[in-house]
Specification:
By secondary structure, this protein is an all-alpha fold. The protein is built from twelve helices and two strands. It has one domain.
């Protein structure tokens, strides 16, 4: 990576550090804060009113830097598209003074619509293959819709305690460095990590700002789109075990309750289960992020050993 690119990426972090306090103060003056869902843990009641939609800042910085560094349009528009869906969700939540914003079907419809465009553009320079197996283009479209929208929502589910979604994303994105084949791929990794790190400075417990759906939906879509563009769909599964675990825990919880009338966990997503077991938020963030990175490292070590 050249010095010019490094300076741009560093500038993202510094600008984020400077801008976030002003963003937080502005949101407080407007009284635009997070509404805590009633079915959530009572431990979260003190977070009511904390400024949200912080994703606006780190997404904006990433998009501007991405344009300067001439990153592929697919990545830039993914941030814009899914950030826009998240913004609508946050806006509705704040306007109606409730924890839930858009209806689930509304959010999913928009996610599917944008993921169709992602599939179309990605197919302009890669074959329609899934995990290395060539498939009809229509099947690749469906796969992309499920993958991108699925990861977008998985990141959203993970964003339940201070710093968790952000740090899990960072530990999921960094391992892709080992499979990067060009300077552009390195830039695409750090163009989102650097402003996100500046956000995490203010999102660590007790959080002064939340990323909101604006941030979480965009992050999940970004990492899955990056994996598609670089033919790393299989690696994506091993680099994001916590995102998958959070999603699976919700599916199992809902299924168990509907079929058996019993819950498997004290609360889902699973980070709330550990929270109700007495784990502090900092411990959950540390353990989940460490395991996320450890599983990725095991996968990388196995992959490298198999090709040597």
């Amino acid at each position: 990576m050249d010095i010019y690119s490094a300076v741009i990426l560093l500038a993202e972090f510094i600008l984020g550090i400077i801008i976030f306090p002003k963003f937080i103060d502005h949101m407080k003056k407007l009284k635009l804060g997070q509404y805590i869902r009633q079915e959530g843990p009572d431990l979260h009641n003190y977070k009511e009113g904390t400024p949200t939609a912080g994703g606006i800042v780190f997404i904006s910085l990433a998009v501007i830097a991405g344009l300067i560094l001439k990153l592929p349009k697919e990545l830039i528009f993914t941030l814009l598209f899914y950030g826009f869906i998240g913004f609508l969700d946050d806006f509705v939540s704040i306007a109606k003074k409730r924890s839930l914003g858009l209806r689930a079907w509304q959010k999913l419809a928009l996610q599917f619509l944008f993921s169709i465009w992602i599939a179309h553009t990605v197919l302009q320079y890669r074959t329609s293959s899934i995990f290395g197996i060539t498939v009809p283009s229509w099947l690749f479209y469906i796969f992309t819709m499920l993958l991108v929208s699925g990861y977008s929502n998985a990141t959203n589910l993970t964003d339940g305690i201070d710093g968790l979604a952000g740090w899990v994303f960072v530990t999921s994105m960094i391992p892709f460095m080992f499979f990067s084949k060009s300077s552009m791929e390195y830039k695409a990794i750090f163009v989102i990590i650097m402003p996100l790190l500046s956000f995490l400075v203010y999102n660590t417990r007790p959080a002064k700002v939340f990323m909101g759906d604006t941030g979480s939906l965009a992050l999940g879509a970004y990492i899955s789109t990056y994996a598609l563009m670089t033919n790393n769909e299989l690696s994506l599964l091993f680099f994001t075990p916590i995102f998958l675990l959070e999603t699976i825990s919700v599916i199992l919880q809902v299924s168990s309750y509907k079929l058996r009338g019993k819950r498997l966990f004290k609360m889902a997503p699973i980070h709330h289960h550990f929270e109700l077991l007495g784990w502090k938020e900092e411990k959950i963030v540390g353990v989940f992020s460490a395991w996320n990175l450890a599983i990725a490292i095991f996968y990388i070590a196995f992959f490298l050993e198999s090709i040597i």
